[in-house]
Every structure is written in C-alpha cells, then in structure tokens.
Write a structure and sequence with these properties.
This protein has 10 helices and no strands. With about 250 residues, the chain is mostly helical. It has one domain. The chain starts with a helix and ends in a 5-residue tail after the last helix. Keywords: Membrane, Transmembrane, Transmembrane helix.
C-alpha cells in the first residue's frame, strides 16, 4: 500500500472521509474509532510528502528539509499520537498495565532474543534513523528513517496499543489490528506499508461495526471532570466528553 504519491493521497483521503462519516454517525465507539482512524491514516499523508519530495540525496549525502522533518519529526509524532488516542479511550487507566507489559517484553527480549527481535535493535533504530529512502520492495511504502524498522518496534507498539482495546471488549478489532501489522513479517523491508493497509482495513471495519457497548466510565465523565488537577486527565475527560458524551447506544 501507499507505493506512490497518488495512492498515498487517495487512500489517506478515503480514510479521512470515512472517519468523518462515522464520526457524524456517532454510535457507541464511532467517534473514538474515527479519531484513531485519522491518526493511523495520517501516515499516508506523511508517505505522500516523501513521495512528492522524491527522497533523493545530494552529492554530499544529505537529503531535503522536507524529507528530514517528515522522517524525524512527523512520523514519530503520528505513531505516538496513535498510542495516546488508544490510552485516552480508557482514561489512561491501562497505561500502567501497558508499561508493565512493555517492561516484561524488554526483559524477555534481553534474555531470549537477538537481531531484529531484540530491544537493542529498536534502540538502534530510534537513535540512528534519519532521512527516509525508497524501499527496494515493489509496491511498498518509503523506508522510514532510511533503516528497516526492527520487529521489536512493533512489539513496543502492540504493548501500548492493545491493552485498552482488550479491556474494553474489542478483541476482534485487536486481532484485525495485530494480524495486518504482523503480515509484514513475510515482507522484508516493507514494515511501514502495513500501516497504510491497516488504515484501509480499519476504515472498512469501522464503517460496518460501531463496536461493543460502551464501558461505564464513558458515562461518568461529566461527574468526574473537575475532580483532578492533572492536565493529562483533564484532557482525557474532555476527550471522553467529545467521543462518548452524545454517543447513541
């Protein structure tokens, strides 16, 4: 997916139009799902900027400012926004659980794995990524940061994104989520293209399914909104009010 400027723009626009429709529909999880879909599909617009830039390097080995800013600033921000949106859906109550799972994964990785499965590979990626380059795999997205994203980066992503989904009764969506991203295991150098595939699949999923019944905490936001001075929780309450305050059952 997202193997060209045109495909990236068209699939990204289609995902955002779908998000706008389900946000207006506003049944159960619709607004929360729409915001997550917009966060995921923002990757397609980042890819579009990279395709538009051409990802060429000058004689001195440097790339353009557009490439550097998109690769080093915007793409990491988009990925973190996806995780933040998921955690806010459960008012950050699953954040400690998610971090605990991640710490356990890091310890297991340090003891039992090597290569791209090891935490060291993720650290190397985070500290050495720079400008993106075109992938050598046909019909693939750009190679983010110019380095093949190691598997442990996706383990980190799963550890932080999955607990809120499982705790709120969205296991089928979670399986779809993991299944699509995991297919990249069969395509070396093509990890990032799976986020475009994920956005398209989630758009179809959300279009036909508004999610399970809302958990009780989503109906208590008005009562508890002023009970904390924590700015993160206050923002989470405002987010809840927007997503669930007027949602149809």
């Amino acid at each position: 997916m997202c193997w060209s400027l045109e495909v990236s723009v068209l699939t990204g626009a289609a995902a955002w139009v779908t998000a706008g429709y389900i946000m207006k529909r506003n049944v159960r999880w619709d607004r929360a799902s729409a915001l997550f879909l917009m966060a995921v599909s923002s990757m397609q617009f980042a890819d579009a900027f990279l395709w538009w830039d051409g990802m060429a390097k000058g004689a001195d080995g440097t790339c353009s400012t557009t490439n550097w800013v998109t690769s080093v600033i915007f793409i990491p921000l988009i990925l973190r926004a996806q995780l933040a949106v998921r955690q806010m859906e459960m008012r950050f109550k699953l954040f400690t659980t998610s971090v605990t799972i991640l710490v356990c994964a890091i310890l297991v990785g340090l003891m039992a794995f090597s290569g791209t499965w090891a935490p060291a590979a993720a650290w190397h990626y985070f500290t050495n990524r720079a400008c993106s380059t075109a992938s050598l795999v046909e019909h693939s997205s750009p190679l983010w940061g110019g380095i093949n994203m190691p598997i442990f980066c996706f383990i980190i992503y799963f550890c932080l994104a999955m607990p809120p989904m499982l705790a709120s009764g969205r296991a089928p969506e979670c399986l779809l989520f993991v299944g699509i991203l995991s297919t990249a295991l069969s395509f070396e150098d093509a990890w990032s293209s799976k986020f475009c595939s994920l956005a398209c699949a989630l758009g179809i999923w959300y279009l036909f399914y508004s999610g399970p019944p809302l958990p009780p905490h989503t109906r208590e936001h008005v009562k508890e909104k002023g009970a904390t001075r924590n700015p993160f929780l206050k923002f989470a309450y405002a987010y809840e009010k927007f997503c669930f305050g007027t949602a149809k059952a």
